[in-house]
Amino acid sequence: MTAWIALGLLIVAGAVLVLNHDAGTIAGFDNSDFAGIVAGVALLVFLGGSMLSGYRGRFTGAVRDAMFWGVLGLALITGYSYRDQVMPIVHRIGGELIPGVPVTVETGIPDSTGVRISKQADGHFLARTNTNGAKVNMIVDTGASTVVLKPADATRAGIKLDGLSYTVPVRTANGTAFAARVRLHNVSIGPVTVDNVEALVTKPGALHESLLGMSFLSRLRSYEFSGDFLTLRS
């Protein structure tokens, strides 16, 4: 029965919208707002009827579940209303718990931005970068003179591997390999951005993880290792 009532509400609302389309408002509401309200009421009628039929003879259970969903809905509405205040806290907690997620920090310096990333369980700092507009994860390596990309990450960053000249020797865990010089339009970690970054692209199989080297780090205002955290300031 409730399904038919909900359907009837939608049909009547649709007819009213068609007839009053030129007026732009219905009962003081914009057409789009009116449609949203009617759709919400129809959904509540349908769900409410279904719940009542399912809880027939179990009034206490119905009240308990209705209160639960009411509190949950209120929490969601409150969270959405204060999303601008809540999201920075969520991002900060995520940065503390998930290695590599950049957390924006205050630098106390005009026109300066800073981020902090936490150490992985293996002792490395993983930087989740935006390289040439693409998401590329890199291991922070102060021993690398430049940013070094493995071929898959270079391709993701829009670099065409065909025609690259692999003439630069680089030391890797597997020994000496050869890489090609390239220029990256920009590399960002959160709000910290460096433009026109010198980089190398290795041959396939030479590198397991891309490296965030000194061609990026040396152009920052500062970078600081402190315990389990690395702070970068631009």
Summed up:
With 234 residues, the protein is α+β, with helices and mostly antiparallel strands.
Key phrases:
234 residues, alpha+beta, Cathepsin D, subunit A, domain 1, 2 domains, seven-stranded mixed β-sheet, four-stranded antiparallel β-sheet, 6 helices
Tally the beta strands. 13
How big a fraction of the residues is strand?
25-35%
CATH architecture level-2 label of the largest domain: Beta Barrel
The CATH topology of the largest domain is Cathepsin D, subunit A, domain 1
Overall form: elongated
Radius of gyration: 28 Å
Question: Would you write up a description of this structure?
Answer:
- The protein has 234 residues and is α+β, with helices and mostly antiparallel strands.
- It folds into 2 domains: 2-81, no CATH class; 100-233, Acid Proteases (Cathepsin D, subunit A, domain 1).
- 38% of the residues lie in helices and 31% in strands.
- The protein is built from 6 helices and 13 strands.
- The chain has helices spanning 2-19, 31-54, 59-81, 83-97, 151-156, 214-217; strands at 25-26, 29-30, 103-105, 114-118, 126-131, 134-140, 147-149, 168-172, 175-189, 192-202, 210-212, 222-226, 229-233.
- The strands form 3 sheets. Strands 5, 6, 7, 8, 9, 10 and 11 form a 7-stranded mixed sheet that branches.
- Strand 1 (25-26) and strand 2 (29-30) form a beta hairpin.
- Helix 1 packs antiparallel against helix 2.
- The longest helix is centred in the first third of the chain and has 24 residues, at 31-54.
- The chain is elongated, with a radius of gyration of 28 Å.
- The model has no long low-confidence stretch (mean pLDDT 77).
